[in-house]
Amino acid sequence: MKVKYLFLIVVFPLFFLSSCSQAITLNEAINIALKNNSRILLAKEKVKEAEQKVKEAAAGYRPSFNLNGTYTHLGKVPSISIPHVGEFPMGEQDTTSLTFSLTQPLYTSGKLTLASKQARLNYHRAKQDLKNTQDNLIFQVKQSFYSVLLAKENLKIREQALHQAKLHLKVVESFYQSGRASRFDLLRAKVQVANLKPDLIQAINNLNLARERLANLLSLPSSSLKIEGELKFQPASLTLSEAIKTAFSSRADLMSLIISKDIAKLAVHMARVKNQPTLSFVGNYEYKISAEKDEWEKNWNINLVLSFPFFDSGKTKAFLEQKISQLRQIELAVKQLKDAIQLEVKKAFWDLQAAKEVLSAQKQNINQAQEALSIAEGRYKSGTITQVEVFDANLALTTARLNYTRALYDYNLARASLVKAIGKEIK
Fold first, then answer.
1. Mind giving me the DSSP string for 141-152?
2. Are 93 and 291 in contact (CB under 8 A)?
3. 23-65+108-278+314-422: which CATH number, 3.40.250.10, 2.40.40.10, 1.20.1600.10, 3.40.50.1980?
4. DSSP state letter for 24
5. Alpha-carbon separation of residue 98 from 66, 70, 143, 297 (angstroms)
6. What is the pLDDT of residues 191-213, one digit of tens each?
7. pTM of the model
8. Where in the chain are the domains?
9. What burial class does residue 35 get, using C-beta atoms within 10 Å of its C-beta: 0-12 exposed, 13-18 middle, 19+ buried?
């Protein structure tokens, strides 16, 4: 039994730690961010608040019940004096009453209907604001995730360059021992290896920094964060006109602003009916008892309450003009946002096309640089070229690999920017 408990104490924490450090994919990173990010949580709470306001507005159609309790003590009971007859009290010193009231709106000139529509629009706007926050966060996660992949690839390339320089150093050392290479050549080969080590250290530092930024975005400890994936080419079959059309129908920030325009229209309508009459039914049922009596007195009444604020010194007119001005402001804001979205989509689309062309060119450079280095190594061994040319070929291959990796990163980032610009995933 003790062995069993010891096994659980030792093995379970190791299993837990290994599961916590399990590599995550891009989709998993996005899901973690959407679950933990405080901006997302705040936007979700606003959606819940707007949903409850819809229910609150719907409750305005239904009757309301109130219970009011009152205890009254008079310091002096008012009375009336009749000459030659006497003095008669006009009340009681201690009185307790309970009143049940029922209120039911009968006619509100459309105010309740407008308020209900406004609450529903606010709810839809809150959901669009949530989607907009999610879209922005997803782009940030993609950018950080791709940065980690880029740093990993750059580190791998630096390691390959150092490994290639060390292999060349071994060749030079063998040539030096056999007398086929000078001590100068040997020193140059050693210096080349030493010069590549700082680049490798910097690449390690860049990877740690990129991983730290991603961990901060995901609200996870960087020590246990491992990612799985690679930078790869994903074609996007979408024309510019299709991209702009999709953006105008899918962008959450634009949809939110259009809903705000509809809300502003309702606000103008509500301002116009602000001084219109309202009619309500009010019923009261009262229980009343005094200190002089031992039983409750019952009383009831019903009322039709008409309210018609027909003159307010121009206050409603000024309020209406404010709402009309606000509507015009939002209409102008919608136009400005559409222009900005169109420009953003065009830039993202052209950046994606340019990144695709650069990526294709850089891929060819790698093949050519690899072939050039292979030829240079062979010629050096045969003694037809100097090792400086080998160094140049090695540097050219490293540069080509770094440029290709950067082009692949730029392409993926441009693709993510286009997805964010149109507000919808690209197939």
1. HHHHHHHHHHHH
2. yes
3. 1.20.1600.10
4. B
5. 10, 7, 66, 10
6. 888 988 998 999 999 999 999 99
7. 0.79
8. 23-65+108-278+314-422
9. exposed
